Amino acid sequence: MSAQPVHESTFESSIAPAAPATPSAAPEVDKARGLRCTRYDQMAKAASAGLMSHPHVESAIVEISGDESDLVFHLNCTITAESDPSDLMETVSNGVISNIERMLGVSFAARRLHFNRSLYTDGASQ
Question: I need a labelling partner for 52 at 20 to 30 A (CA). Which of 23, 70, 82, 122 fits?
Answer without folding.
Answer: 70
